[in-house]
């Protein structure tokens, strides 16, 4: 399977521990496309808004086959932000690095599925989140403590014959905890990065160019001190109502079933601009403006990584609010998170997705969508499944086709 990447990265073979031929294949980028032998020290600088990398091996007498990539968690050392891609049982380790700068926001974490019978989403500590489908009358009948809260924050959901809204199919019911928000992640402070990264893209000596970029950026790192979360209507609730919510949430989380990793899951990341009511601390409506930023895919462990960069015209905000969606066939959203507020430059975001949202439509690592016009096929296998131009003997070749894309902060096409 292909791992979706964003922006400029330097890929370097860190370890090659197999007698079987290994390589990595870059597709969909502006520079660096093609197959690259996995010999020790092999390095290539890749640029592009959204592209993919596949790790492959070739057993004796057989054609190239995709390896099982595993995404490592990122870290910052010597001015570089790094993470590793590991294939199989570490037969091939591919180091991915870029000069750390304040122009980047990188989110990463695990995506897990939890039983749909759980009342609350077990992945959120900052908010109380009830994932759809939400039948407010039935909830209040089963849990009377919820009635005065929903009546104050979401009275429209308690109408005798509520008018269905399209966004209600995905929009979670979000309630405040009343607890102080906890700061997470890292903040980066650096000199402007655009000119520095442009010089890196055209460099012949990658090691020297990276060292010069690190020196020019002069990036400093600090732990995020200020914490923020949605007001979610907190000011409308009495203390007794918050205490009742806390007791209900504690009881619900104690009985929650085991959450398990979800592999091969396609995610879409959105930049969310709160509505005026939400900015004033009112209930979450999900009606604010959104911008689709790009896609990520989970590996066999359920891990993902996404980079948002001003390098390719991403929103010029220091700490954005982000929403993550899981996608099914045809890029149809099957679930979406409540917003993560004021995300710092490097933050771990672990997702818990109700199992019914995944079971019928989850994208398996080697699944091929039957409809040729399906953009999900373009994202899953078209970005990385096409044989590189410098490879004549790969059996993974597919006839190129252009699928137009006009949404989000980029426009153009994906080659299938």
Automatic annotation (TrEMBL):
Q: Where is this region: Disordered?
A: 384-416
User: How is this protein named in the record?
Assistant: Uncharacterized protein
User: Where does this protein have compositionally biased stretches of type Low complexity?
Assistant: 386-400
**Organism this protein belongs to:** Rubrivivax gelatinosus (strain NBRC 100245 / IL144)
